Amino acid sequence: MQGKIPTSTVALVRCESYEQEAVYKALVQGVELLGGTGAFVCPGEKILLKPNMLAGRQPHLAVTTHPAVFEAAVRVFREGGALLSYGDSPGYENAKTVARKTGLGDAAHRLGVPAADFETPVLVSREDIPGIPGGKAVFPLARGALEADGIISLPKMKTHGLTRITGAVKNQLGCVTGFEKARLHFLYPNPRRFASRLAAITKILSPRLYIMDGISAMEGEGPAGGNPVGMNIILLSRDPVALDTVFCRLIDLSPAFVPTIKAAQDMGLGTSDEGSIKLAGEPPENFVKPDFDVVRRPVSGDTVFRLPSILRNRLIPRPVIDKALCKKCGVCIRACPVEPRKAVNFPHGKNRFPVYAYGLCIRCFCCQEMCPHKAIHVKTPLSGRAFAGFLSALRKKA
Q1: Where are the domains of the chain?
Q2: Other beta carbons within 10 Å of 303
Q3: What pTM was computed for the model?
Q4: 253-278 residues labelled b (16+ CB within 10 A) or e (exposed)
Q5: What is the pLDDT of residues 124-173, one digit of tens each?
Q6: Angle at 173 between CA 168 and CA 179, to 5 degrees
Q7: Selection from 141, 73, 78, 145 nearest residue 115 by Cα
Q8: Contact 141, 121 (CB under 8 A)
């Protein structure tokens, strides 16, 4: 199945709208730059398409993979003879509801693509997977993802409060069933350790190809509360690390600030070395957006997370509720993975606004991620901003 195209090739294809034929032609072009459909699927193989179905938002909001990209992928790989299914496990709504609201369900129904089983968990230990170092972490992965002969991952180009970007490596988190995703946040609150689990999941599933929908991306407070911005691009690669690295290059973000990139590279999933990444298609300079709204600083490290909670609360970013936007719907409370006491709760019933207990908060930002009203923002306390400036000055002197 391997062609002569280097594994760490990233194809950059211009696409300026979600008009169906335009997206299809762009996807055909991108797949051809990487060796054609035969490099990824064989006739009769069961192939899972894994879009980003974070929440039930309309396609123009850039929260999820656009149905036009999904439909183009169906056409391309069905022409290669693949037997297709699709699936994802959303953050808090059920998959059918999210598929309907995002337009992905309608596209799948019209094209005759069945939903894979993303409700039945299968426990997979990373000890069972060669090349994944470390202890006895067990991942409850969707049966539909594990039973497929191969996976085509369809990530969305977005920012993320915890990992800086939602990219190719992180897209496989949706193969963890139901609220087990929140449990992973609770077990591994440190962003670097959490990133290592994301990399392990991607290594277990080993998608054959990553196709990133960047026609309309999300900047600002992603992955659900940010703003759509036209990037007019589709990125494709076998190498998720290289693809995420090129994504960073387009938005003027250092790959060193993205914990999933380092974790995945350390696990042998690809390279972030720009000298080792081969680019195909249109030059990246044609798409660079230096004013893209993204946090351009490292994530909080192990040292900060080991500090007493009173210091953590003064130093590291935290979720803050905008009462002008809050509808008191309670989604933030349901999304919080901290048990048994939630880090956010209604103090005296739903007639009042939710309140954070920052001493319990693990800074996973699941509440901000799931808020349907963009009412939760990630803010750094004044003392934290001063401390970050002090560290930056020290680095410059060094």
Answers
A1: 9-286, 302-397
A2: 7
A3: 0.90
A4: bebebbbbbbbbbebebbbbeeeebe
A5: 876 655 555 555 567 899 999 999 999 999 999 999 988 999 999 999 99
A6: 160
A7: 145
A8: yes
φ/ψ region of 254 (left if φ > 0, alpha if ψ in -120 to 50, else beta) reads: beta
Rounded to the nearest integer, the mean pLDDT of the chain is: 90
Half-sphere exposure of 344 (CA within 13 A, CB side): 27
Which residue, among 88, 85, 90, has the nearest Cα to 56 in the 3D structure? 90
For residue 207, the one-letter residue type is P
Fold exhibited by the domain 302-397: Alpha-Beta Plaits (3.30.70)
CA dist., res. 185 & res. 187, Å (int): 6
Q: 9-286 is classed in which CATH architecture?
A: 3-Layer(aba) Sandwich (3.40)
What one-letter code names the amino acid at 252?
A: D
